[in-house]
Amino acid sequence: MNLRIIHADEPLSDPAVLAVRDRLRAADLTAAETGTIDVGEAVSEIIADVQARGDQAVIEWTAKLDKAQLTPETLRVGQAQIDKACAEADPAFVQLIRRAAENIRQYQQHIMVQAPPPLKRGGRRLAVRYVPVDAVAAYVPGAKAVYPSTVLMTLVPAQVAGVRRIVMVSPPLTDGDVNPMVLALAGELGVTEVYRLAAVPGLAALAVGTETIAPVDKIVGPGNAFVAEAKRQLFGRVGIDSIAGPSEVLIVADETARADWVAADMLAQAEHDPGSAVLVTPSEALAEAVVAEVGAQLAGLDRADAIDRGLSEFSAVIVVPNLDAACEAGRG
Questions:
Q1: Could you give the CA distance from residue 287 to residue 319 in angstroms, rounded to a whole number?
Q2: Which of 125, 151, 217, 288 lies at a 20 to 30 A Cα distance from 12?
Q3: What's the CATH number where 226 sits?
Q4: Helix, strand and coil in the chain, % to nearest 5
Q5: Would you say 298 and 277 are in contact if contact means Cβ atoms under 8 Å apart?
């Protein structure tokens, strides 16, 4: 594990700090996952093909991108397979998911927009009414890694809002199956419409519709540069949550911070392969403790090699004279 500690009295002019900043600004995080491919052109080709040829285009692109052989009948995951994934899920994991889902549900209920009382003027009543969209689809990555938080933070808010039709789409593994953890999460939340589709053709199908897949009103969920570009190009034909950038975090902390928590936050971003995590602190002791804690936690993670790449190439711990300098570095 090669997480650098940089000592900088003036971080905004320090060559090592500027090198980290400039690499991130140069979009190396995005370039690392796209290589020399013209992302916009590749995505546009897939969308146009799905719009023209429907299911067959989705099937062929999924075979090309994810090496999974599908038919129109197997695009959708059967309920029996979802039930099987639920039955075989680790009970401790299921309990954790239930607790997290309930916490999210309660918070979403708390912040849900409520219509104000009608305004009465001259015998007239002026009012506004909030209604949920009819159909939402959540894209859940599942090739490199599975993030249960993606499922919970996209589907539970839709349920609280009262969306009638909630769809999940996740890329198939090479044997054609969706990751069992994803299916267990869908089953636990009561989502029954799940599709095994490669990312961009799947999003295109959900936006324009095919013979098998009915279009939705809105697509949500994270993804790589291709997913972000697909959502950008499809926006207008379908609503989206946002066009997310690379996974990165900047943490400003002093000596009162817990090194294990800071390390966990950094690893949570670096694991996105690639991801970036930068800690800026006036505490040499915290800097050293965090680096040691990152190494200790990294050793127990399944995707340690991918995470180590993000830590080595796109991350750093920067020690500065005081908190004012740390905050200034964050603005730089």
A1: 7
A2: 288
A3: 3.40.50.1980
A4: 50, 15, 35
A5: no
Number of domains the chain is built from: 2
DSSP assigned state of 209: -
pTM of the model: 0.81
CA atoms of 109 and 129, how far apart (whole Å): 17
Mean pLDDT to the nearest integer, 100-127: 94
Contacts of 76 (CB under 8 A, 6+ apart): 193, 194, 195, 196, 212
In 10 A of CB 300, how many CB atoms?
7
Per mean pLDDT, which range of 105-109, 164-168, 220-224, 256-260 is the poorest? 220-224
Q: Share the mean pLDDT of the chain.
A: 89
CB 61 within 8 A of CB 49: yes
Lowest mean pLDDT among 96-100, 247-251, 280-284: 247-251
- Residue 50 maps to a domain: no
Judge contact between 140 and 151, C-beta under 8 A. Answer: yes
Residue 274 falls inside a structural domain: yes
DSSP at 124: E
Other C-beta atoms within 10 Å of 120: how many? 10
**Quick one: DSSP state of residue 74?**
G
CB-count exposure of residue 311 (10 Å: 0-12, 13-18, 19+): buried
Residue 216's domain comprises: 60-108+129-240
**Terminal-to-terminal C-alpha distance of the chain:** 27
Q: Is 135 within the bounds of a domain? A: yes
Q: Same domain for 228 and 144?
A: yes
User: What does the pLDDT read at residue 173?
Assistant: 81
Would you say residue 9 has pLDDT above 60? Answer: yes
Residue with tokens 């971003």: 269
- What pLDDT sits at residue 27? 57
Q: Which residues contact 191 (CB under 8 A, 6 or more apart)?
A: 155, 166, 167, 168
